[in-house]
Design brief:
- The chain contains 26 helices and 23 strands.
- The chain is of the alpha+beta class.
- Among the domains are: about 220 residues, no CATH class; about 180 residues, no CATH class.
- The strands form 4 sheets. Strands 14, 15, 16, 17, 18, 19, 20 and 21 form an 8-stranded mixed beta sheet that branches. It has a 6-stranded mixed β-barrel with strand order 3-4-9-6-8-7. It has a 4-stranded antiparallel beta sheet with strand order 2-10-1-11.
- Helix 9 runs parallel beside helix 12.
- The longest helix has about 40 residues.
Length: about 800
């Protein structure tokens, strides 16, 4: 019987080629989209899972606060913690908490000039790390001994890609690098850190090296430059560990209180998608985006299934006589249901095979859109094989169960007498499903428009500083460059394309530290907070065209500016309790061993991503040895020539340092790559959702038009115009789309309102966005249905009436 069912299913598909093609195409696109989104979501959920003891790894979050005279300071909110913290907390935890089996620490990334024989590169994203690192994290060593690789001072473990850059395929263990005046010996080579890691690096230098360079900071509880991780046995009571923190801090940090400094423990599994802490060691993902794409995948597959249900039930009249005959000769209802479910599974099986083939074609494009690796090997594992086998049943059975049930319940006596008609309930169901499809489609159109409007808003927002035509030379804080900075700036400024030039420790968009800063209040009391800090030179404000709202910028006319004055931003003015920026001018400050007075307030500028509000910032004159970057505002004419000239000048002037540059606007916009990718992917899958919905609408309109050909012929004979007939045939479907607009508007508004909450600076959601989306849906429906309606209206009525 199964063989017979398959044969009948194939004949039914062959007999109704157009409807079969629509069903298979819709399901193919739906399955392909679903698989691609599953790959994307699976990658997002896989971060750090490759570590063998993934569930046993935790990291230390640290909160530095000023209770500002509060008697009962509430516990820090999750967003008040930061991953970046002090060094002594790690060894102290290991000594006092017997639950901790292993502990390791990393520093924030550093940039070093690495020299090996005739090869010289400025390497960024290098970290110092403890010797226990390879006991905690499952990074495979390709050469060297993991027990000793990070034990000795001045040893370095290279990632595979960095090792190949210098040594090719040779084993570099034992080879020696020159690095910023030091000598580093290669003690190991490890595999490149997988892309699905919450932080990555290009090389690890032993922490004992850092202890040799700056031993004093390993005892400072207020100095932050470390990320601390530890392992505990599985099923350890972390809440009980957390309860011991106040007593622990009282023992080890007697000068502070839990109101000013406290710690918390966060599992590694929360690091990428669930952490709200600041100062992350790498990019974080968006759990909201994972939910959104998962819903889109479900919606796409559901819409494809709706098309199948609609077309199958709409064409039930064509199968009615077949069913009547089968029942008359003894067919059971269960057998008929099984037969039509078999047809649904056959269609879903064909769509699944074609869908996976489409995935293979589209995967490179999805890689480019998402910025993820998504290797083909993900499609060749047993889970995908099982999905390939089960997909026809998971899609075909739910989509086919209702049509099979409807078809199997036909009464043979009525059918064979020609008195059978489609039920009113079936017609209403099909209309309801069309409304559902277009509600989703309209919501997706509106949401896509809002996403791109927000992205455009980010790009066009006035950041409070000049970012275009700004060339940044990253020289890694080279001591030789810093000692001759005045000469370097003067030489580069001689190029006629250079309009302004400045040197600083960081530029907008960079990672920057916080500094314990005390400023006098109105009553003269010194109040301490920890605002961010920029270290700049005299030309920083004029080069970046920043505006002063009170006081003045740094000037060579004031010798005291080099060490005893400071400029702050408006957000810092408010943090220290002043409503008017003018009031803070002349107030005393203390910061990092420097004392003096506030001489200026700069207008707030967005030195971080627009996901965040402008935070308090201090800008002080940099000592000669802390600057890392040179910013040049250049003319936009003949950029290639200008860059070549600057590179030549640099090579003559500072031959020991490679000429590494980027443009500030490009670097700053890199912060929004995840948002841009989200917009592109959302638009792509939203468009495919609309395409599938239109396929279903086209199929229904085709069937509806075919069933009304005689009615159309009679109307034409009686004088109906083409416009009247097109309006008649299109009107019913347009009404459904209008109802869909009413349903889609609150749904889309709610979804986008939640998404926009992730931006401190965001666009407003306007009603006309949904109006335009609805108009677009109406136009799409008109194009889909109108073509068929126009074709039917222009048909010669003789052809449809000749059988009467």
């Amino acid at each position: 019987m199964i063989r017979n069912y398959l044969k009948i299913a194939w004949r039914s598909l062959s007999r109704s080629k157009i409807y079969s093609l629509i069903n298979i195409t819709g399901l193919t696109v739906g399955i392909a989209c679903c698989v691609l989104i599953v790959l994307y979501v699976k990658d997002e959920l896989s971060y750090d899972h490759y570590h063998k003891n993934y569930h046993e790894i935790y990291r230390v979050l640290q909160a530095f606060r000023n209770p500002a005279g509060q008697k009962d300071t509430p516990a820090p909110a999750p967003s008040e913690y930061q991953v970046w913290g002090c060094a002594p907390v790690g060894p102290a935890l290991k000594a006092d908490f017997p639950e901790i089996t292993k502990m390791t620490q990393f520093t924030s990334p550093v940039t070093l000039l690495m020299e090996y024989r005739d090869k010289r590169f400025q390497e960024s994203n290098m970290m110092f790390a403890d010797s226990a690192t390879f006991d905690i994290f499952s990074w495979k060593l390709l050469a060297g001994n993991k027990e000793t690789a990070l034990k000795n001072p001045y040893s370095i473990v290279l990632t595979k890609s960095i090792a190949e850059k210098y040594f090719g395929n040779a084993n570099p263990v034992g080879e020696v690098f020159k690095a910023e005046g030091s000598t580093l010996m290669v003690s190991g080579v490890m595999e490149d850190v997988p892309a699905n890691s919450h932080f990555t690096f290009s090389a690890l230098i032993s922490m004992s090296t850092f202890r040799k360079i700056r031993p004093e900071i390993f005892g400072w509880w207020g100095y932050v430059d470390f990320y601390t991780y530890f392992t505990v046995p599985e099923h350890t009571n972390i809440a009980a560990m957390q309860a011991k923190v106040p007593a622990f801090l009282k023992r080890y940090n007697p000068g502070g209180t839990t109101d000013t400094y406290t710690i918390a423990f966060e599992p590694l599994k929360n690091a990428y998608l669930h952490s709200e802490a600041m100062r992350q060691p790498g990019p974080t993902g968006s759990l909201a985006n994972v939910y959104i794409f998962s819903l889109v995948a479900a919606f796409i597959l559901f819409i494809a299934g709706i098309n199948f249900i609609n077309l199958t039930t709409a064409r039930s009249m064509e199968r009615a006589k077949e069913i009547g005959v089968r029942k008359a000769v003894g067919a059971y209802q269960q057998g008929l249901i099984f037969q039509y479910l078999t047809e649904a599974v056959v269609i879903a099986a064909l769509a699944t095979i074609l869908g996976f083939a489409l995935v293979l074609l589209l995967l490179p494009l999805v890689r480019e859109l998402s910025g993820k690796q998504l290797p083909y090997s993900q499609l060749l594992n047993w889970k995908m094989g099982l999905m390939l086998v089960l997909m026809p049943f998971l899609v075909g059975l739910p989509a086919g169960i209702y049509p099979a049930w409807v078809l199997a319940r036909f009464k043979p006596a009525l059918v064979l007498k020609g008195k059978f008609e489609s039920s009113r309930g079936g017609i209403q169901l099909r209309k309801g499903l069309v409304v559902f499809q277009f509600s989703l489609s309209i919501a997706l159109i509106a949401c896509t428009a809002i996403v791109f409007s927000q992205l455009d808003h980010l790009r066009s927002q006035n950041l409070g500083f000049r970012q275009d035509q700004m060339l940044i030379i990253d020289y890694g804080g080279d001591e030789t460059v810093n000692k001759s900075m005045d000469m370097v700036k003067a030489t580069l400024a001689n190029n006629p394309a250079v309009q302004k030039i400045t040197a600083s420790r960081a530029v907008p968009g960079d990672f920057l530290p916080n500094a314990g800063t005390s400023i006098a209040s109105r009553s003269g009391e010194m109040i301490q907070f920890d605002p961010g800090i920029y270290e700049v030179d005299f030309d920083f404000f004029s080069t970046y065209e920043m505006k002063m709202v009170a006081g003045r910028a740094y000037s060579r006319d004031f010798p005291a500016d080099t060490g005893s004055t400071m400029v702050i931003n408006e957000a810092a003015v408010k943090q220290y309790g002043y409503a008017n920026p003018e009031e803070i001018i002349g107030k005393k400050f203390e910061q990092w061993g420097r004392n003096g007075t506030i001489v200026g307030v700069v207008k707030d500028f967005n030195y971080q991503s627009l996901h965040k509000k402008v935070e308090p910032l201090t800008l002080r004159m940099a000592p000669y040895d802390t600057k890392n970057k040179i910013s040049l505002r250049i003319k936009s004419d003949h950029l290639s020539k200008t860059i070549a000239e600057l590179e030549h000048t640099w090579a003559v002037m500072e031959p020991q340092r490679p000429f590494r540059y980027n443009f500030l606007d490009q670097a700053f916009n890199d912060q929004y790559q995840q948002d841009v990718r989200f917009g592109k992917i959302f638009a792509a899958f939203g468009s495919l959702t609309i395409f599938i919905a239109c396929l279903g609408l086209f199929g229904l309109a085709t069937y509806s038009t075919e069933k009304r050909l005689k009615e159309i012929g009679i109307r034409k004979v009686l004088g109906a115009s083409v416009t009247n007939i097109v309006g008649l045939l299109s009107g019913d479907f347009i009404k459904l789309v209008l109802i869909a607009i009413v349903i889609a508007t609150p749904l889309g508004w709610w979804g986008m309102h939640r998404w926009l909450e992730g931006f401190a600076y965001r666009v407003n959601i306007h009603w006309w966005t949904f109006g335009m989306a609805g108009l677009a849906a109406v136009m799409i429906a008109l194009l889909t249905v109108g073509f068929l309606a126009l074709k039917a209206a222009m048909m010669n009525p003789v052809r449809s009436l000749k059988s009467e």
